[in-house]
Design brief:
The protein is mainly alpha-helical. It is built from five helices and two strands; from the N terminus they run ααααββα. The chain starts with 6 loop residues before the first helix and ends with a helix.
Length: about 150
């Protein structure tokens, strides 16, 4: 199972990210490549405790949602809307300079692979509280999902 805690999995994501271009075309969804970079950065800021988010309604109990999304060998479905505070058209970080934003995402991705046990009340909007192992698994899957969105 791939996870951001594993150096080779992190290196894979960084390699795929390096192939992203500002004009890369999405295969689904509505985000541009630049918006996706900022969206992933916001997700990693949530993981490190630099950004807080509110719990969103969940169609299933959070532990079941978390188990399905993180540990069943399924690709995440297309078209699931993000929460407003992580949406670049609403409350998420706005794109500024593509190259600078990609470089910042690379740094955040690298830092996100560390353990953050001292961050209080670190919540995922759908899954709620998660262990470090859950966060590392989510961090890999979230980036993988959005990189596949752009054919990477």
């Amino acid at each position: 199972m791939k996870t951001l805690a594993r150096a080779r999995d992190k290196a894979e994501l960084l390699r795929r990210l390096s192939a992203l271009r500002h004009d890369s075309q999405r295969r689904w969804g509505r985000m541009s490549a630049h918006q996706m970079v900022c969206h992933l950065s916001d997700g990693y800021r949530m993981l490190t405790g630099e950004r807080r988010t509110e719990l969103a309604p969940s169609p299933l109990p959070r532990p079941i949602m978390k188990a399905i999304a993180l540990y069943l060998p399924l690709e995440w479905p297309h078209g699931i809307l993000t929460t407003p505070d992580l949406d670049q058209d609403v409350g998420g970080t706005r794109p500024v300079d593509f190259d600078a934003d990609v470089a910042e995402l690379g740094q955040l991705l690298d830092r996100a692979g560390l353990s953050y046990p001292d961050v209080p009340e670190r919540l995922h909007p759908l899954f709620g509280r998660m262990s470090d192992a859950d966060w590392m698994r989510w961090a890999y899957l979230h980036a993988d999902h959005h990189l596949r969105q752009f054919g990477l």
